[in-house]
Design a protein that fits this description.
This protein is an alpha/beta fold and 150 residues long. It contains 5 helices and 6 strands; from the N terminus they run αβαβαβαβαββ. β3 (76-79), α4 and β4 (110-112) form a beta-alpha-beta unit. 35% of the residues are buried.
């Protein structure tokens, strides 16, 4: 255990989040997402797991150490529901609440069509698979920066 670090972040996830640079993307996916095959195309090339957590729990833990990009509109994206792209399922609303909490203000995620999401996921730095069993619990986050102390 480390003091001040969320206990839900395992060593592999912490190492990856630390290694990512400004603008790199991270996928946090549900159990139905083709995480293993997509992770093989990412920068790290292997799948990370937080499979004992829901999507919102994993996002909350990750956002406790990962700054989101403030320079772009696509700092966070959610997989759109097929046939109803404006629908926001409960799992996505829960993750949106975690983003707003971490940011200290509302910052809506962008919607990404399912197959476009897969394409973007293949370009990510890493994929984390959670234990989320609800559909559409798939998200992409763009790492921001930590400013110097004033």
């Amino acid at each position: 255990m480390l003091k001040g670090i969320d206990h839900r972040l395992n060593a592999e996830v912490l190492h990856t989040l630390r290694a990512m640079g400004h603008g790199d993307t991270l996928v946090i996916a549900d159990t139905n997402f083709p995480s293993d095959s997509i992770a093989r195309s990412t920068t790290i090339g292997s799948l990370l797991r937080m499979e004992n957590l829901s999507g919102a729990e994993a996002v909350q833990a990750v956002l406790s150490v990962l700054p989101l990009d403030t320079f772009v509109a696509d700092f966070a994206g959610r997989m759109q529901v097929v046939g109803d792209p404006d629908q926001v399922p409960a799992v996505q609303a829960e993750v949106q609440a975690q983003i707003d909490r971490a940011e200290g203000r509302p910052r809506p995620m962008t919607g990404i069509e399912r197959f476009a999401f897969y394409d973007e996921a293949r370009k990510a730095y890493a994929v984390i698979q959670t234990g989320e069993r609800r559909f559409y619990g798939c998200f992409i986050f763009r790492k921001g920066v930590i400013p110097p102390e004033a």
